[in-house]
Design brief:
Elements: E1 5-7, E2 14-17, E3 23-26, H1 28-33, E4 40-41, H2 46-64, H3 79-92, H4 97-106, E5 112-114, E6 130-133, H5 134-137, H6 156-160, H7 164-177, E7 204-206, H8 210-216, E8 246-247, H9 254-258, E9 263-270, E10 273-281, E11 283-284, E12 298-302, E13 310-315, H10 328-331, H11 344-354, E14 363-374, E15 379-391, H12 400-432, H13 445-465, H14 473-501, H15 503-507, E16 509-512, E17 517-520, H16 522-536
Parallel strand pairs: 8-11
Antiparallel strand pairs: 1-5, 2-3, 2-4, 6-10, 7-14, 9-10, 12-13, 14-15, 16-17
Length: about 550
């Protein structure tokens, strides 16, 4: 077996889907220069796709911060140049082949998956780290030696060995999302926490092709305003970092951030397959105010529990129990005023709209994909993804009122959901005549979820339909239309809950407490519920 094996620039390993819905593996180079021919990435998990996409973006940032679309040396000197370069590539409808080919050819030696000195995204020094089998490398299984999957779609042979192409994808995934189960080899070393992407509330933009997706996420200006620092992808380092659990300064450029080595890894190959890997903690930095990261939502950092003043921001993980539209106020804030921080990707898309680089009629799709961890990030328990589409004009400054109104409607949905839970508890009281000592904890949670389930698609459709300017009669009609829809759904659910409760609940019960006797009946509860819903929606 040769020391050098499987070069990522030549071999097929990036999974994509074609317009004909065919899934195929292609090389890294092909994925970039022919991105217009593919519908998008199609790896084993949506989180894996984000890790692969950030690698492709690191190449784009590196190349087109140094040369223009024709491959001529032209370092960016002001924000307008960055926007002009982005537009030139966007209007071409494909990534310029010449500059990408020339750059990647110059870096060919750095992209060997197996190399005696410099394996891609790995370091030989990791061989002292925690040893795992291929089943742990596979993010669909994430099976360690002490946590076996009883039911799995993988055969024993495939669990224990992975082809190089699949191992390459999971290598990026583990580096980005690894849990905290690995033990340090050195003494008194700080904890790096989960992999960097695992700490984020990831949000990305998605286009109609892989080319459009790459371009929409190709944020050439920090938060849509500032030029980046010099691009420094990990493969351009003179020597790969090998120190265990190393705290570093926050990168000031996307290429360095997107190729951050959160873990020190070393794949183990056997008979032309990957049989396992070694792992140590890698680079990390303070996540507070880490605004180089453009693909996350942010939550405020309060001074103290008493002093609620905001002193900074940190990445905010998504709540797996909430649909993406319920995070609209956080992801697409109307006014910041020091209380919110807009995700960089949202500010970038907004900038493209302001400069009319995107068509008015174009729908923008934003996606979330994230890993859910358990027990202090000790293991990944599940992976989630969601998406939301709306007209790009909603991100314009002139439509700030619309974003505020949408946030208000999201808040009203929460109010109605709370009223649905109250109705469920009062129906339960009417049915079972609970005394004061009998608790009804947990009652109403399923009905709360049912309400969100029923309004989920209608809310998405309403949001996607908005194409009016805020403050016009059309915008008022759009908002009124949603409120009528929400009321109907809520009241229909309430009536259904009462009907299912039966005659005894409708008649009601008298329940005593220390001070008085109160009548609980589903009929009375429904009247109160309808009144409260109508009050919420004026």
């Amino acid at each position: 077996m040769t020391d050098k094996e499987f070069n990522l620039l030549d071999e097929s390993w990036v999974r994509v889907i074609t317009p004909e819905c065919e899934i195929k593996e292609i090389s890294l180079t092909d994925a970039i220069v022919n991105s217009h021919k593919y519908s998008g990435l199609c790896g084993e998990l949506p989180t894996q796709d984000v890790a692969v996409m950030r690698l492709l973006l690191a190449v784009l940032h590196t190349v087109f911060s140094r040369v223009n679309e024709d491959g001529e040396p032209a370092p960016l000197e002001d924000p307008d140049e960055a926007l002009e370069r982005w537009k030139a590539i966007w209007d071409m409808g494909h990534i310029p082949e010449k500059p990408v080919w020339e750059y990647l050819e110059s870096q060919h030696e750095k992209f060997w998956l197996f190399h005696p000195e410099r394996p891609f995204f790995q370091v030989p020094e990791a061989n002292i780290g925690t040893e795992y089998g291929a089943a742990k490398l596979n993010g669909e299984l994430s099976e360690s030696s002490n946590k076996l999957r009883l039911f799995t779609t993988y055969s024993v042979e495939k669990k224990n060995k992975l082809p190089y192409s699949e191992a390459a994808r999971w290598l990026l995934y583990v580096n980005a999302y690894d849990d905290t189960s690995a033990k340090p080899k050195g003494k008194n070393l700080p904890s790096p926490g989960a992999g960097w992407l695992g700490k984020l509330g990831l949000i990305t933009a998605k286009g109609n092709s892989l080319f459009e997706t790459l371009m929409l996420n190709f944020v050439m200006l920090k938060d849509g305003n500032e030029l980046w620092g010099e691009e420094k992808p990990a493969w351009e380092l003179e020597k790969a970092k090998a120190a265990e659990r190393s705290e570093i300064p926050l990168p000031n450029n996307p290429a360095e951030l997107y190729t951050l080595q959160s873990r020190r890894l070393l794949l183990v190959r056997k008979d032309g397959m990957v049989a396992g890997y070694y792992l140590l903690g890698g680079d990390f930095f303070n996540k507070e105010m880490a605004f180089t990261e453009q693909m996350t939502i942010w939550s405020p950092i309060r001074a103290t529990t008493k002093d609620k003043s905001i002193i900074g921001f940190k990445p905010c993980r998504h709540d797996s129990s909430k649909q993406m539209w319920r995070e609209f106020p956080t992801a697409f804030p109307a006014e910041e005023k020091g209380e919110k921080h807009t995700p960089g990707i949202v500010s970038w898309i907004s900038k493209l709209k302001v400069y009319e680089l995107l068509a008015d009629e174009q729908l923008i799709k934003f996606c979330t994909s994230f890993a859910q961890y358990g027990d202090k990030d000790f293991f990944i328990s599940d992976v989630f993804s969601d998406s939301l589409s709306f007209h790009g004009r909603l991100l314009e400054e002139a439509n700030e009122g619309w974003r505020s109104a949408i946030a208000d409607e999201v808040a009203k949905c929460k109010e109605v959901a709370d009223k649905v839970a109250v109705l469920a508890k009062e129906i339960d009281m009417a049915q079972r005549a609970k005394t004061k000592e009998q608790k009804n904890d947990g009652i109403g949670k399923e009905e709360d979820r049912q309400f969100y389930f029923r309004i989920d698609i209608p809310f998405r459709e309403w949001l996607e339909s908005i194409n009016s300017e805020w403050g016009t009669e059309e915008s008022e009609a759009d908002r009124k239309r949603w409120r009528e829809t929400a009321q109907k759904i809520a009241i229909a659910l309430g009536e259904e809950m009462v009907a299912n409760a039966g005659e005894n609940a409708f008649t009601g019960r008298m329940i005593k407490d220390d001070k008085s006797t109160r009548c609980y009946s589903s009929a009375k509860a429904l009247l109160n519920f309808k009144y409260n819903v109508r009050k919420i929606y004026d």
